[in-house]
Amino acid sequence: MSKIKWLVPTLYIIFLMLPIYWLLNMSFKTTTEIINVYSLWPKDFTLENYVTIFTDSTWYMGYVNSITYTVFNTIISVSAALPAAYAFSRYKFLGDKHLFFWLLTNRMAPPAVFALPFFQFYSSVNLFDTHIAIALSHCLFNIPLAVWILEGFMSAVPKELDETAYVDGYSFGRFFFKIFIPTIAAGIGITMFFCFMFSWVELLLAKTLTATIAKPIAAIMTRTSSTSGYELGLLAAAGSLTIIPGAVVIYFVRNYIAKGFAMGRV
Amino acid sequence: MNKTLNQKAWYFVIPVFVLVAFNAAVPLMTVVNYSFQETFGSNVFAWEGTRWFKEILHSERFHASLGRQVIFTFIILLIQLPLGIGIALTMPKKGWGVPVCLILMSMPLLIPWNVVGAMWNIFALPDIGFLGNSLNSIGFDYNFTQQSGDAWFTTILMDVWHWTSLVVLLSYAGLNSIQPAYYQAAEIDGASRWDIFRYIELPKMKKVLTLAILLRFMDSFMIYTEPFVLTGGGPGNATNFLSLDLVKMALGQFDLGPAAAMSLIYFLIVLLICWIFYTIMMKDEGRA
């Protein structure tokens, strides 16, 4: 039994890697080769697609834009969610349960529903086509998630920790930043991972709220495909590059996941 | 945990409340406004009352896309949850395999959704795609752009590829939070593998699984970008899920009134299901 146990994750990883390999494979081909020849590896290996992306500012600025608003959003979401999650995990207050559920309902609103009103709303407050607009709009689904995850981690920390600190003469602020935040560092890491993830991959709102200046890479890819025919090689290269930021982020949080968390009293 | 009553806790919640309300209130009110009106272009609106709601609730088009949506979400949950838990149970617990598994498995989660759709489109094309070409060369008549069965198969396979890792990561983290003492005790008691899973592992994973189930339910019910890029809702209307249909109505035909009414009905359905789930979960919490 335990001898063949490694087989399950291995097969799963192979399944996951196949489409990614196919994308990489195509990114090193010319568009003509992609369309005319079916081959498991590039016959006519070229870096042309990547050169185009790194030398054309309309391409590489897409990555800069996407990373910018994703980082903004992660910072805003986590810093706003920290005190709120603390309140939910430690105190009872008027309407706490309703408020918690109301927050969750915003995670449930289909972005397709909100796309058009968002466009009108952000245009009317003069934030259209700015990074901050996307970062703020993504708060709609990331803040509820951040509060939820952080609340889980905070509930796992016994209240005695708070009480001991106050007895030792800590003020609330010093306790929160010096003791509490380091205690739930893993939770903050995991929350940042989720916020980064959902903001990085979202396209509908990001595309609706931008025109040129803050356009995300994913939207630039859709534009290129419609104006100049399907430049498959270029699209594959651009797609392959979108995997990198995520891979970097997961590298940093891997240990938090490996150590395990239960999001609540253990 | 016994929480203390403290109304000042509201101050801690204000930033979150303001940020979310800023995003939610105005757009939601806009949708509500549209849902009761008829648009004639150039910002001319006429009051329509509940006409759109009645029309949508009785329209076959809505029933069809809702039906497809429910079936899709149900299949997705049915595949991804057991598969995700199963993979998490078989993953290595220490050594070099851990980071390798975690990093490789997370990759699909971190690819922008339209790239996922485009990637699977190319991967599944019958002539130049690996999946399509392989299936055809071993004798299957596979073409996801022509046959609705194949389109469903591809969309589901894509979603399994895309999201199962979320269940894996959360279950794995939940499993690793269990102290070795529990397993030792179970061994002494002579518990079977199933007993260990049922009475130790599953209860310890409850919270992370709740998060996984709710996230998977919400996101698969709201799925838009990936099928839009992969199949565009086709062939015909075969994979025309709720969000796709909604956007077609709102932006394609510019029927803002009916689209808004449909949005609200859609939102209420998600809300209702989550509320039921949430209430059951909270009740359990109270007993524990």
Number of helices of chain B: 13
Domain count of chain B: 2
| Arithmetic mean of pLDDT of chain A | 86
CATH fold field value of the largest domain in chain B: MetI-like fold
CATH architecture designation of the largest domain in chain A? Orthogonal Bundle
Beta strands of chain B, count = 3
Alpha-beta content class of chain B:
mainly alpha
CATH topology of the largest domain in chain A: MetI-like fold
Instruction: Note the overall shape of chain B.
Output: globular
Unreliable segments of 5+ consecutive residues of chain A: none
* Helix content class of chain B: over 70%
CATH homologous superfamily designation of the largest domain in chain A = MetI-like
- Strand neighbour order, sheet with most strands of chain B: 2-3
Top-tier CATH class of the largest domain in chain A: Mainly Alpha
β-strand amount of chain A? under 5%
Alpha-carbon Rg of chain B, integer: 23 Å
The percent of residues in helical segments of chain A reads over 70%
CATH class of the largest domain in chain B: Mainly Alpha
Largest sheet of chain A: none
What is the H/E string of chain B? EHEEHHHHHHHHHHHH
Task: Please write out the topology.
The complex is a heterodimer of chains A (266) and B (288).
Chain A: H1 7-27, H2 31-36, H3 48-55, H4 57-90, E1 91-92, H5 96-108, H6 111-124, H7 131-155, H8 160-167, H9 172-183, H10 185-201, H11 204-208, H12 217-227, H13 232-259
Chain B: E1 4-5, H1 9-35, E2 37-39, E3 45-47, H2 51-58, H3 60-90, H4 97-106, H5 113-124, H6 130-137, H7 148-176, H8 180-188, H9 193-204, H10 206-221, H11 225-230, H12 242-252, H13 256-287
Antiparallel strand pairs in B: 2-3
Helix pairs in contact in B: 1-13, 2-13, 3-7, 3-10, 7-10, 10-13, 12-13
